[in-house]
Write a structure and sequence with these properties.
By secondary structure, the protein is of the alpha+beta class. The protein is built from 3 helices and 16 strands. The chain has one domain (53-338). The N and C termini lie far apart (126 Å).
């Protein structure tokens, strides 16, 4: 066989070689190291995202809670031109369902004690006033006249006031909006219903007249009692409630301090709180001129912090019982209707 007919091995076959077991194992180790780094980056990024999302939601909830509270605190204890609860006569039936003792004043609350949330009670008028129209009372139909299209309904509780007195009563007629008549009969057509609170000079058998005859200088406002508290919300999280309705979820605690002013009305120091104390240490709620409020907002998810979080609520040092995030939001709000 000459050179021309000798079998020829392809060059690529001569150079072909396989991977050894050591090379495969090295490649696998390197791949695992790279994969571990990717997983670590992913886990860290995911945790950062969870924390940022929780903080953002907590900030929004805290701001909303303080906005609700501050707005209602500022407007509490409003009795029109009468200015003081001492001038107000409450004609609501104390034995009826839903009775509110407005004579207790515009500010109240309860102290939750160690580990417990406080509650805050605010009373007073709201909405735009309606000027009393002629004919003026007392009338046999027990009616206060205002303009029609007033958005009032049967069962609404209102007060009429001038600069000398005010009377609280419940509307008993079915058409106050269209007629402009605010009837305040006694009886059981609404609850809690009306009674004659003082009978100052009721003519004949008219047992439902008010404490005085109100004229063109008097104004009618709606009146309300607002109760803020902490309860379990619809999502299973603690939430801020207003008159039994959930308004902001994720609020774990509500703490209230009352700023009491010991200076006499008209004196140079009047209108500034001398000290802040919890509800059970207030000497006279009528002397409270500002309220310091704090809400504790917690994250929905657990395991967001590396350990139990320490935080302070109105000077009280606390340690969380879990690994949720918590933020404290506080504000001091003046009660406008009690300032000079």
């Amino acid at each position: 066989m000459n050179a021309r007919t000798r079998p020829h091995t392809p060059p690529d076959r001569r150079r072909q070689a396989g991977l050894t077991l050591v090379e495969i194992m090295v490649a696998m180790v390197l791949s695992l190291v790279l994969l571990g780094g990717v997983i670590q980056i992913f886990a860290s990024t995911r945790q950062t995202h969870r924390v940022q999302e929780a903080v953002s939601r907590m900030q929004e909830s805290g701001r909303m809670a303080l906005e609700f509270l501050a707005r209602d605190i500022r407007m509490a204890d409003f009795w029109g031109c009468a200015s003081s609860i001492d001038k107000v006569t409450n004609h609501l039936d104390s034995t009826g369902t839903g009775f509110v003792d407005y004579a207790a004043g515009g500010i109240g609350g309860t102290e939750g004690g160690t580990g417990g949330a406080d509650s805050l009670i605010l009373r007073g008028g709201f909405n735009s006033g309606l000027t009393v129209q002629s004919p003026y009372g007392p009338l046999p139909s027990a009616v206060v006249k205002v303009n029609a299209n007033n958005n009032l309904q049967q069962g609404d509780v209102v007060f009429v006031s001038d600069c000398t007195a005010a009377d609280i009563f419940q509307i008993t007629n079915a058409d106050p909006d269209t007629s402009g008549n605010l009837v305040h009969n006694t009886g059981s057509s609404v609850t809690p219903g009306n009674i004659n609170a003082s009978d100052p000079a009721c003519p004949g058998a008219n047992a439902h007249c008010l404490s005085k005859v109100y004229g063109a200088d008097a104004t009618v406002y709606q009146v309300q009692q607002l109760v803020y508290s902490i309860q379990n919300g619809a999502a299973g999280q603690p939430a801020l409630f207003r008159n039994g309705q959930e308004i902001v979820d994720g609020i774990e605690d509500l703490q209230i301090l009352y700023g009491e002013d010991l200076d006499a009305r008209g004196s140079p120091g009047f209108g500034t709180a001398d000290y802040y104390v919890p509800a059970n240490q207030v000497v006279d709620m009528e002397r409270v001129v500002s309220i310091r409020v704090a809400v504790v907002v917690r994250s929905y998810e657990d395991n967001l912090s590396t350990g139990a979080q320490n935080y302070t609520v109105l000077g009280d040092q606390r340690t969380a019982a879990d690994n949720r995030l918590r933020q404290v939001y506080s504000d001091t709000v003046a009660i406008r209707n009690r300032l000079p």
